[in-house]
Design goal:
The protein has 363 residues and is mainly alpha-helical. The chain contains 13 helices and no strands.
Length: 363
C-alpha cells in the first residue's frame, strides 16, 4: 500500500490530474493521458480507504487493552509527533530547498520564510501525506469519546456471518450518496484533508472496527472477493471509460465529475464507491489466503513502511529533478520514478532514518 502511495505521487509529477510539490509536466498524447487517468483514479478510489479500514481493525483491541487515556496518549505519540515533525521540519525543508513551492514576493532566507509560514498559519495546511495521521487521530479520538460516553464495547463481538451481497451493495449506495452530497458544495481542504473523500474514509474506518468486533475477515469468501474484484477490473473499467467519453471529460468538462449538481458527479461517485468496495474485498481475501506469509523481504518492507510514508516526498522530488533532464516519455519517467523512489525510500529508511534514536521511537 505504501508503494502505491509512492506510485501516486510519482504519477502526480507528470500527470495533470493531481497536485504535488514538484511537477515536470509536458503535453500528453490521449493514450498516455488515459493511462495516467486510469491508474490514478483506480488508486484514488480505494487505496487510502483501505488503509483506514486496516487502521480501524486494530482500534477496538488497542482501546480494550489500554483504556481511554493510554489509548489516546499512544495515538498522539505515534500519529501526532510524526505529523508535527513533517509540518515544522520535513515539509518546510522540502518546499524551500527542493520543490521551491513556497511563493513569496521576494525570496528571503529559509528562517524568514519558515517564520512567515508559521505566522500566517500556512503550516496548518501543509502536513503533506501526514494528513492521513491527522484524520486517523481525529477518528481515534471520536472512537474513544464514544467508548467513554458508553462504557463497554459499542459493538460487542458476536459469532455472526460476514456481510453478504445485499449488505455490500447497500454499503456502496450509502458511500456513493454521501460522497455525491458532500461534493455538491465543493468543500475546501481542511488541514490538508480533502473532505469530499471523507464519507469513504469514515465508513471504511467504521467497517474496520465492525470487522474486528464481529470477526468478519476469516469468514469472507475468496471466490466472492475475486468475483467482486473481477467486476471492478472488467465491467467497471468499461463503465469508467464510457463515463469519461460520454460525460465530456475528454472535451474540457472534467470539473463536472468533481462536484455540483451534475450527473457526471453522481455517476462517478457511484463508480468510485463500487470500485472501492470491490477492490478492498478482493485484495483482503487474496492476501489472506494466497499471500499470508512473511519472508525476509516482506518483513523488511513492513518494518520500514511508516518511515517511508513520512519521508518519501523529498526523496521523490530529488529523483524527479534528476530525471527532469532525460528526454523520455512521461510514462517511462513515471515508471522509473516509482521504482527509484521506492528503492531509495526504503533503503534510506533502513540505513538512516530508523537508525536515529529519536526518530526510531515514532516511525
Amino acid at each position: 500500500m505504501i508503494i502505491l502511495v509512492i506510485s501516486m505521487h510519482a504519477a502526480d509529477t507528470y500527470s495533470p490530474l493531481g497536485n504535488w510539490y514538484f511537477v515536470d509536466r509536458r503535453p500528453l498524447s490521449e493514450p498516455a493521458l488515459l493511462t495516467f487517468a486510469a491508474w490514478q483514479m483506480y488508486l484514488q478510489c480505494f487505496f487510502m480507504g483501505l488503509l483506514f479500514f486496516i487502521a480501524g481493525l486494530f482500534v477496538p483491541s488497542s482501546f480494550d487493552r489500554k483504556g481511554s487515556l493510554q489509548f489516546l496518549r499512544d495515538r498522539a505519540f505515534r500519529l501526532g509527533l510524526p505529523t508535527l515533525l513533517y509540518m515544522f521540519c520535513i515539509g518546510p525543508l522540502t518546499e524551500y530547498y527542493l520543490a521551491h513551492s513556497w511563493t513569496s514576493t521576494e525570496r528571503t532566507s529559509f528562517l524568514n520564510e519558515w517564520i512567515k509560514h508559521i505566522r500566517n498559519g500556512q503550516f496548518l495546511q501543509e502536513n503533506g501525506p501526514l494528513w492521513f495521521c491527522v484524520a486517523l487521530l481525529i477518528f481515534s479520538a471520536a472512537y474513544a469519546l464514544l467508548r467513554t460516553w458508553r462504557p463497554g464495547n459499542l459493538v460487542p463481538g458476536v459469532n455472526g456471518r460476514a456481510p453478504g451481497t445485499g449488505e455490500l451493495i447497500a454499503f456502496v449506495l450509502v458511500m456513493a450518496t454521501f460522497t455525491f452530497l458532500i461534493r455538491i458544495g465543493r468543500p475546501s481542504p481542511f488541514l490538508n484533508m480533502h473532505l469530499e473523500d471523507f464519507p469513504q474514509y469514515i465508513l471504511l474506518f467504521s467497517a474496520g472496527i465492525l470487522a474486528a468486533r464481529w470477526d468478519w475477515l476469516p469468514k469472507l469468501s475468496l471466490k466472492t472477493g475475486m468475483g467482486w474484484m473481477a467486476v471492478a477490473l472488467s465491467a467497471g473499467f468499461a463503465a469508467w471509460l464510457a463515463l469519461l467519453v460520454f460525460g465530456g471529460a475528454l472535451h474540457g468538462r472534467g470539473a463536472d465529475y468533481s462536484g455540483g449538481w451534475h450527473w457526471q458527479s453522481a455517476a462517478f461517485s457511484l463508480w468510485e464507491a463500487l470500485t472501492c468496495v470491490s477492490l478492498c474485498f478482493g485484495l483482503l481475501t487474496l492476501f489472506r489466503d494466497k499471500l499470508n506469509s512473511q519472508g525476509r523481504l516482506a518483513k523488511f518492507l513492513s518494518d520500514n513502511a511508516f518511515s517511508v510514508y513520512v519521508f518519501h516526498p523529498p526523496i521523490i522530488i530529488i529523483a524527479a529533478r534528476l530525471l527532469s533532464h532525460a528526454s523520455w516519455l512521461p510514462l517511462v519517467k513515471f515508471a522509473t520514478l516509482t521504482g527509484v523512489g521506492a528503492v531509495a525510500s526504503f533503503g534510506l529508511s533502513a540505513v538512516l532514518f530508523r537508525r536515529i534514536p529519536v526518530l526510531r521511537r515514532i516511525i
